[in-house]
């Protein structure tokens, strides 16, 4: 994931060379379109809820759906990633339970938990969680495999 600089002033502030997306009149990789879809889903949660909720609650509800149902094992206790995954709706653990684990987050395949991932589990790098958080959407595991 690269940082997104739409306005010229943002490029200048961050010492980025070249033209901004606004100057080029492009939306590199459809990021603005993606955000619009995300905002529409959040708006739907907010407007279709039978009880009057604050839009901040609608944001939390949407975030909790991103990795809902994912059981993730970490090969090291990275509290930032762990919290990020839980905020996205995942269940996190440091112990591998073969029947419920769907994903193992690792930097390389050296531990027992990492090897568990080779048995019909996803072995992904930490960027998988970061990308899901950044894009507010579960990302394809094959793009974040540590074997890539």
From TrEMBL:
Compartmental location: Nucleus
UniProt GO MF annotations: RNA polymerase II CTD heptapeptide repeat phosphatase activity
Keyword Nucleus found: yes
Domain of life: Eukaryota
Main EC class the enzyme belongs to: hydrolase
Residue ranges constituting the BRCT domain according to the UniProt record: 62-146
EC nos: 3.1.3.16
Signal sequence annotation: none
One GO CC annotation: nucleus
Keywords recorded for this protein, A-Z: Hydrolase, Nucleus
Record's keyword annotation contains Protease: no
Reactions mediated catalytically: O-phospho-L-seryl-[protein] + H2O = L-seryl-[protein] + phosphate; O-phospho-L-threonyl-[protein] + H2O = L-threonyl-[protein] + phosphate
The protein, known as: protein-serine/threonine phosphatase
Taxonomic lineage of the native organism: Eukaryota, Viridiplantae, Streptophyta, Embryophyta, Tracheophyta
